UniProtKB/TrEMBL annotation:
Residues 222-465 form the MCM C-terminal AAA(+) ATPase domain. InterPro entries: AAA+_ATPase (IPR003593), MCM (IPR031327), MCM_dom (IPR001208), MCM_lid (IPR041562), MCM_OB (IPR033762), NA-bd_OB-fold (IPR012340), P-loop_NTPase (IPR027417), Sigma_54_int_dom_ATP-bd_1 (IPR025662). This is DNA replication licensing factor Mcm7. SMART domains: AAA, MCM. Belongs to the MCM family. Pfam families: MCM, MCM_lid, MCM_OB. GO terms for molecular function: ATP binding; hydrolase activity; single-stranded DNA binding; single-stranded DNA helicase activity. GO terms for biological process: double-strand break repair via homologous recombination; premeiotic DNA replication. Keywords: ATP-binding, DNA-binding, Nucleotide-binding.
């Protein structure tokens, strides 16, 4: 019994330890916390059992119970002070008294009865208080339900819109009466005793064994396994599938300054100056050129997320591919351009109880994840303008209703545009799609999915569709069993996404040669900017992650070039079959040699 008293006497209560000491008391504690109000005042919990986790938001029968719930923060209030006291002090006899309410303040001393009393606010026992509103996005059981979280003390001011959290607390009833004569409205809130950022992906033993075997595959088998598993019900489009996966994985996370080293060849000095923007870095470059090669250290601040635009006819599988993307990463938000406003994409200011709060939109909720936008060309001009900062800077600057702040929006964007049948690759993309050049240049990859009316491909597509409705033989079932599920792909991406990838001189030289060649030969309809070079670097780093490498190689660079060349935003400098080049070693080697010869790259 003494151990239990000591446990409740601590500032932090360990629930697992309480269960071990007295299971019956722990059960009563969880089912009716109102009996232990004094023990829980200004305290927090840890060692929380998984049994407390609810699949849906709490209901009326959960009042006074201790529960855990997952959700994404969609709104957060300002941090206010609670338990502010008033200190009354007599200047005549030094009499002192502390009261909690303004109504209890008096100017008369209770000892000497003089009127010379001074009242001051006392913050000794004050604690921070913040209200959060969460939504379990992606859970079909909760739909659009939201829940208000009351965060006090050390839990206030630590969490922001877009973050996914696990909250453990007491279900309480809150009542409000906005106007005189109106009925009192009641709603459920969760008084938080523990809040933690959560990671949804936990590898199973089978997945760990599978990934260990996967590391022993050669690069082509690794790539083929993932590409054939991703969107296995969609025929072809290997380039599009690879581009989407590379965009979701992203490159090195260099947001915030970091020190990078790049090896420079003296003969490439002038060309390399194109990618070093400020004069100080150019001076360092020239100072370090003492031999044929040297290393240049300079600071970079570039995003890791890539963006993809899918353009094509209706019924070509664009939305299906988008649906596959939504299942391999969390958080993942989908919205439609026809029913989306600028506030819905970015953020809006909401007045509640006389106070203005910011409510996060789709881009903020997708922080560190993916935001998919269908019918992208249906967005209005002012709605698209909000994407410019998010796609490049990965932040969202807000100045609404007197609230000025900057929110994180570090997400990849996959957008889909439906085009008319008269679309031609010779068309100017910004004009035809009604998308401004600054916005379209922010997309790392732009793919075209068109109905080419190829008889052989039509047969293969129809066979694949019909096979989903027929009984398979043992050989066919064994073949499909080698494919990964989307859940397995999601686990693998989560495992490799934060890997740090190093680059070397060979990779830099290949990408720089290609960039300079495209600059020289670009057409009037082609947009070739420094963003293209940065995109190639991100794709190269992402591909190195896919094949479980810590250092980029020339193969990663060539793959990123072929993925970019397979899009519709550039004039191709070499022709190839995009469904073969990523999975057939001999075909890839032949086309790589053509590219090496064209760019005059030394082997």
């Amino acid at each position: 019994m003494e151990n239990i008293k000591d446990l409740f006497g601590k500032q932090e209560i360990n629930l697992i330890e309480l269960c071990n000491l007295n299971p019956e008391l722990a059960n009563k504690f969880v089912l009716n916390t109102s009996l232990y109000k004094k023990n829980l005042k200004s305290k927090s919990l840890y060692g929380i059992p998984l049994a407390l986790l609810l699949n849906v938001f709490p209901k009326a029968n959960d009042i006074s119970k201790l529960v855990s719930i997952k959700g994404t923060i969609i709104r957060s209030s300002n941090v206010l002070l609670k338990n502010v006291e008033y200190s009354i002090e007599c200047t005549e006899c030094d009499w002192k008294k502390t009261v909690l309410s303004e109504t209890d303040i008096t100017n008369v001393c209770e000892t000497c009865m003089s009127n010379n009393c001074i009242t001051k606010q006392a913050f000794d026992n004050a604690i921070g208080h913040q209200t959060l509103r969460i939504q379990d996005i992606g859970n079909p059981d909760t739909l659009s339900d939201t829940l208000e979280i009351s965060a006090e003390g050390k839990w206030s001011g630590r969490f922001f819109p877009g973050e996914r959290i696990l909250v453990t607390g007491i279900v309480k009833v809150n009542m409000i009466n906005n106007k005189v004569g109106e009925k009192i409205k009641s709603f459920l809130t969760l008084h938080a005793l523990n809040i933690a950022r959560i990671d949804d992906i936990v590898l199973t033993f089978q997945e760990e064994k599978l990934f260990d075997e996967f590391k022993n595959y050669d690069d082509f088998k690794k790539r083929e396994t993932i590409l054939k598993s991703f969107g296995s019900h969609i025929y072809g489009y290997m380039n599009v599938k690879l581009g989407l996966i590379l965009a979701i994985i992203g490159g090195n996370n260099n947001l915030g300054f970091s020190e990078n080293k790049i090896e420079i060849n003296e003969t490439e000095n002038r060309k390399s100056n194109n990618i070093i923007s400020n004069d100080e870095n150019k001076e360092k470059l020239n100072e370090n050129l003492n031999g044929d090669k040297s290393f240049v250290s300079f600071k970079t601040d570039r995003r890791s997320s890539s963006h993809v635009l899918l353009v094509g006819d209706s019924g070509t599988g664009k939305t299906q591919l988008m649906g596959c993307c939504l299942q391999i990463i969390k958080p993942a938000i989908k919205t439609n351009g026809l029913g989306t406003s600028d506030a819905g994409l970015t953020t809006c200011a909401i007045k509640q109880g006389g106070e203005w709060n910011l409510e996060a939109g789709a881009l903020v909720l997708a922080d560190c994840g993916l935001c998919c936008i269908d019918e992208f060309n249906s967005l209005k001009t002012n709605e698209k303008s909000g994407l410019l900062e998010v796609m490049e800077q990965q932040t969202l600057s807000v100045a609404k209703a007197g609230l000025v702040t900057c929110l994180n929006a570090r997400c990849s964007i996959v957008a889909v545009c439906n085009v008319n049948n008269n679309f031609s690759l010779k068309n100017n993309l910004p004009e035809f799609l009604n998308i401004s050049s600054p916005l379209i240049s922010r997309f790392d990859l732009i793919f075209g999915l068109f109905d080419d009316k190829n008889y052989q491909n039509d047969i293969k597509k129809t066979d694949l569709v019909l096979s989903r409705f027929t009984v398979h033989d043992e050989k066919e079932s064994a073949k499909k069993s080698n494919l990964w599920s989307l859940a397995t792909i999601r686990s693998y991406i989560k495992l490799i996404r934060n890997n740090k990838i190093e680059t070397n001189f060979g990779v830099n030289n290949i990408l720089l040669k290609y960039y300079n060649y495209k600059r020289k030969t670009k057409s009037n309809t082609e947009i070739i900017t420094i963003r293209m070079l940065e995109s190639l670097y991100r794709l190269t780093e992402a591909h190195a992650k896919i094949v479980s490498r810590n250092v980029c190689t020339s193969e990663d660079a060539y793959i990123s070039i072929f993925v970019y060349e397979s899009g519709i935003s550039c004039n191709k400098i070499c022709k190839f079959d995009s469904d073969r080049i990523f999975i057939e070693p001999a075909y890839f080697k032949g086309k790589t040699n053509e590219l090496i010869s064209l760019l005059e790259i030394e082997k």
